[in-house]
Design brief:
It is a single chain. This protein is α+β, with helices and mostly antiparallel strands and 152 residues long. The chain has two domains: 82 residues, AF2212/PG0164-like (Elongation Factor Tu (Ef-tu), domain 3); 53 residues, no CATH class. It has six helices and six strands; from the N terminus they run ββαβββαβαααα. It has a six-stranded antiparallel β-barrel with strand order 1-2-5-4-3-6. The longest helix has 16 residues. It is elongated, with a radius of gyration of 17 Å.
Length: 152
């Protein structure tokens, strides 16, 4: 388990400038590497994915986690991290699954995406409250998935 303090920072380039990240110090970076991680942010447990950008290993922090931990961007926080050996299932909502089932090429493109991208599309559709919004987001996912983009 890696223990360190980190300042919560914004992404450096669009579309990630609205996101918040934990930057992993070099000493912990060597032990973790990129991929699935689990740990705590100011004592609040979470799971995430460590990725490298601009030579820095970082882990995105959701708004819900920030609220739950009672912290915000710009603050220095206590972090514990370790590799997460447990697979994280991706719950694809029915609306998105129907769109994926409509095209073999689209389904293949979805499966070829990194798990973080697949999870982001599934959550983007699933988090919509109204059925019409879920349907619209699922339909719009086609172009984003084929373009290997994150939902916006």
């Amino acid at each position: 388990m890696q223990r360190f303090f980190s300042k919560l920072v914004a992404g450096r380039k669009a579309p990630y400038t609205t996101w918040t990240f934990i930057e992993v110090p070099a000493a912990a970076d060597a032990a973790l590497g990129h991929g699935p991680v689990r740990g705590t942010l100011s004592g609040t447990p979470f799971r995430g994915t460590a990725t490298r950008s601009g030579g820095v290993l970082r882990v995105p922090v959701t708004r819900a986690l920030l609220e739950q931990a009672g912290v915000g961007r710009g603050e220095r926080v206590a972090v514990t991290l370790e590799r997460d050996p447990d697979p994280r299932p991706i719950d694809v909502p029915d609306e998105l699954q129907r769109v994926l089932d409509s095209s073999r090429a689209l389904a293949s493109a979805f499966e070829a995406m990194p798990p973080s991208h697949r999870r982001a599309w599934a959550q983007h559709v699933a988090e919509a409250k109204r059925p019409e919004t879920r349907q619209r987001r699922a339909a719009q996912a086609r172009d984003g998935i084929l373009g290997r983009q994150f939902p916006r």
